[in-house]
């Protein structure tokens, strides 16, 4: 009980005194800590970070791959050692006949989920620097101001009047999604890649005639990016972001997707049993291990 009180007091103190955080690599290269910045002299420009965030993630992007080609492509890939190879469509001939086919589907989706998180992390690094500058009333460069405006629109915080409120909400919203959680949703929606191939997260939108129907994506990169943005912006998923932010304050461990399953009850609100069915997926295969996965070429900050 005493430890909880002390931790809670620390959070209150940090907020009250205007302390805030930035990313720093941990020794193993696969964790991140957002350390407290207390001196204006510690603040640097975000311009170079913004340049990185505007770049597409490098890799090999492949289209029109059939199931046999997919098997050959990913046969030596493990859950925690993933290459920058992105197959942009679920093969039309993809059907699950063995447990190995389920594993193959996860190998197909994992690079896309890691890629989406790497893009988010690149944005977050720049946003944290802007947060520092605003806390100390430091002027933003033109590039920083343009980036701030762009992120405010992208992450739907324009309705907040004060810039201080916008940046605080961006710090909360621009953060990674658990890889295992994204995987579990795509498994449930597609039945391991056998249906909804162009709508692997079953996002819905009005089609102009007031009919709510699934959004179809040209490629998996766009589908995963859109799914991540949904988790980071939809008002119905506020509890997901609240829990994630609490983990940031207390232990920086954001990678455990299974603890976030209960916060997905409003993701597909038209399906009352969605969360229960999602929870049943987690014991299958190596899904939980995916939260510790990283790119073969080097781990970016995921926690």
Topology:
Elements: H1 2-16, E1 20-25, E2 32-37, H2 47-53, E3 60-62, H3 67-74, E4 85-87, H4 99-135, H5 142-154, H6 163-173, H7 179-190, E5 204-206, E6 212-214, H8 220-233, H9 238-250, H10 274-281
Parallel strand pairs: 3-4
Antiparallel strand pairs: 1-2, 5-6
Helix pairs in contact: 2-4, 4-6, 4-7, 4-8, 7-10
Description:
- This protein is mainly α and 303 residues long.
- The chain has one domain (2-292).
- 46% of the residues lie in helices and 8% in strands.
- The chain has ten helices and six strands; from the N terminus they run H-E-E-H-E-H-E-H-H-H-H-E-E-H-H-H.
- The strands form three sheets. Strands 1-2 form a two-stranded antiparallel ribbon. It has a two-stranded parallel ribbon with strand order 3-4.
- Strand 5 (204-206) and strand 6 (212-214) form a beta hairpin.
- Helix 4 (99-135) runs antiparallel to helix 6 and helix 4 crosses helix 7.
- It is globular.
- The two termini are 26 Å apart.
- The model is unreliable at 1-33 (pLDDT under 50).
């Amino acid at each position: 009980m005493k430890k909880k009180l002390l931790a809670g007091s620390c959070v209150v103190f940090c907020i009250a005194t205007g302390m805030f955080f930035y990313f720093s690599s941990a020794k193993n290269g696969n964790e991140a800590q957002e350390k407290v910045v207390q001196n204006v002299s510690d603040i640097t420009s975000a311009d170079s970070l913004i340049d990185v965030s505007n770049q597409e993630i490098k890799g090999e992007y492949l289209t029109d791959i059939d199931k046999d080609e997919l098997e050959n492509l990913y046969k030596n890939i493990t859950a925690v050692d993933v290459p920058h190879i992105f197959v942009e469509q679920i093969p039309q001939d993809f059907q699950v006949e063995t447990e190995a086919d389920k594993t193959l589907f996860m190998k197909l989706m994992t690079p896309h989920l890691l890629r989406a998180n790497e893009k988010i992390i690149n944005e977050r690094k720049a946003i944290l620097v802007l947060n520092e500058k605003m806390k100390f009333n430091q002027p933003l460069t033109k590039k920083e101001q343009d980036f701030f405006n762009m992120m405010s629109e992208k992450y739907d915080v324009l309705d907040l009047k004060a810039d201080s409120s916008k940046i605080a909400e961006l710090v909360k919203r621009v953060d990674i999604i658990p890889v295992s959680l994204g995987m579990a949703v795509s498994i449930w929606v597609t039945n391991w890649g056998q249906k909804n191939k162009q709508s692997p997260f079953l996002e819905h939108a009005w089609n102009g005639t007031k009919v709510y129907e699934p959004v179809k994506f040209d490629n998996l990169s766009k589908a995963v990016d859109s799914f991540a943005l949904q988790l980071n912006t939809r008002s119905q998923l506020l509890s997901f972001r609240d829990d994630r932010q609490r983990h940031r304050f207390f232990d920086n461990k954001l990678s455990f997707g299974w603890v976030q399953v209960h916060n997905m009850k409003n993701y597909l609100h038209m399906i009352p049993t969605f969360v229960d069915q999602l929870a049943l997926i987690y014991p299958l295969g190596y899904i939980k291990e995916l939260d510790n996965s990283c790119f073969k070429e080097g781990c970016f900050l995921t926690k």
